[in-house]
Amino acid sequence: MNLYAIKAIYLFEMHRTWRTIMQSVISPVISTSLYFVVFGSAIGGRIPEINGVSYGAFIVPGLIMLSLLTQSISNASFGIYFPKFVGTIYELLSAPVSYVEIVIAYVGAAASKSIILGLIILATAALFVPLRIEHPFMMLLFLVLTAVTFSLFGFIIGIWADGFEKLQLVPLMIITPLTFLGGSFYAVDMLPPFWQTVTLFNPVVYLISGFRWSFYGLSDVHIGTSLAMTAVFLIACMLVLRWIFRTGYRLKS
Amino acid sequence: MSSAISVSSLYKTYSTGFEALKNINLEIRHGEIFALLGPNGAGKTTLISTICGIVNPTSGTILADGHDIIKEYRAARTKIGLVPQELTTDAFETVWNTVSFSRGLFGKPAKPAHIEKILKELSLWDKKDSKLMTLSGGMKRRVMIAKALSHEPEILFLDEPTAGVDVELRRDMWNVVRALRASGVTIILTTHYIEEAQQMADRIGVISHGEIILVEEKDELMRSLGKKQLRLHLQGKRETVPEALSKYGLELSPDGAELIYTYDTQKERTGITALLKDLDKAEVRFNDIQTKESSLEEIFVSLVRERK
């Protein structure tokens, strides 16, 4: 294991965050706060409690997940796309590092950032609404699993993308709709029956449901199913990455 | 003792079907400076990139200090430093950080004293806290070299190190290269400047259309460089060189219109006076005389042209 290399890449990536602190941390915090003001206070005040949880508190787990997903993807995809774009990837490819080490470093850094961000948003939320976390350990587990899984997914997108357009396309066209329709702002049983069935094909539903369960003990689907779906997605990303590195896809000619 | 770099039967065909490298066989000795010459698109960069692991070889084997670059990539790559042709840097990083990053990436523990030494040698010390985007092209080139040297490689690849670099930097760079060689580092460089290869290299290789067409000691090449040709334009064409002049080793040009005498300018006697007397005796008439120096450039150009 080339630990020095993992450390070098990890610190390099984390350093990039501090350099772009406005974009990486402050802007998601501001946008989440706006959600709280609009949905939590303004509109939420007119919505009745959902299973004994006020609407403002109900949307907290969903909002954290929303940021966690989009930030994990954009951090990781940008982290690997940028060296490809400016050409500094030559150094990575010629260095004595294995692909596993590259993934650990890049995905680790991207996941760290989004976990920190998730916790910051959680703290911000606590300023607006009364929070309770029934299963703190499960909450952290979901936070870490989701951050790692979607950082892996972002890493794949970063390798696949051959232009800035593609880099933004997947988060914009797929992830944002999935999260908005994944129960961030509502409980699945609030939907008409037909859409309840459709929703079950949305992987994000399982993440948000599981995450919300760790807060309030209520969920749309069973917690075991949530964990299993997360694991399935995690493994799928790992398999795709293994294929990418074996073939050198988009990295080496 | 194994070679610093040993390339055997290396082929590279890109997915477009372009054959960039054809049956490359090359041994680079420990501690030498090897200059790889060739026109644009000859395969210089592909060859270097393949050895350094940036391009996958189609077939063939490459050993770096006895280690297979694919099966034992860790051992092989740790020994190699690469300065690529293009100036690709992380614009927002500082000089110090980017050079330290490279050392870590190559699996070496931090050693600020070494980084300091490199930066000082490359006159980068006062720029160590500058962001890369604020540096001039020449300074960036120095940073690229510093990055390649950060992990104390035993084999250094310099791909067109002096392209677009001013005279002063070129001189600095060659001083660094000489110092590295003195400390035992093997150096492989590609260049367009034949003069540069002439000054620096121990051996010279010429690559053209993906094939190595010549590998020779520089001194050997210089010896043939030291030769001059005397061309006598004859009155009327001849089929053969006159018998009486056989001791001069004359050649007849392919069209029979010229006699060519090759002589060594380094020698005390070039034999020209004797030749002219004997030509007169043999009643060979000519209407023009021309002398010509063959340069490495010419050898190079004719070698490359032959292959086309």
UniProtKB/TrEMBL annotation, chain A:
GO terms for cellular component: ATP-binding cassette (ABC) transporter complex. The chain crosses the membrane at residues 21-43, 55-82, 89-109, 115-133, 140-161, 167-187, 194-215, 221-245. Its main location: membrane. Residues 19-248 form the ABC transmembrane type-2 domain. The keyword Membrane applies. It is found in: Cell inner membrane; Membrane. Keywords: Cell membrane, Membrane, Transmembrane, Transmembrane helix, Transport. Coiled coil: none annotated. This is Transport permease protein.
Automatic annotation (TrEMBL), chain B:
The keyword ATP-binding applies. PROSITE patterns: ABC_TRANSPORTER_1, ABC_TRANSPORTER_2. Residues 5-234 form the ABC transporter domain. Keywords: ATP-binding, Nucleotide-binding, Transport. The keyword Cell wall biogenesis/degradation does not apply. InterPro entries: AAA+_ATPase, ABC_transporter-like_ATP-bd, ABC_transporter-like_CS, ABC_transporter_ATP-binding, P-loop_NTPase. Pfam families: ABC_tran. Gene3D superfamilies: P-loop containing nucleotide triphosphate hydrolases. GO terms for molecular function: ATP binding; ATP hydrolysis activity. Belongs to the ABC transporter superfamily. This is Multidrug ABC transporter ATP-binding protein. It comes from Phyllobacterium sophorae.
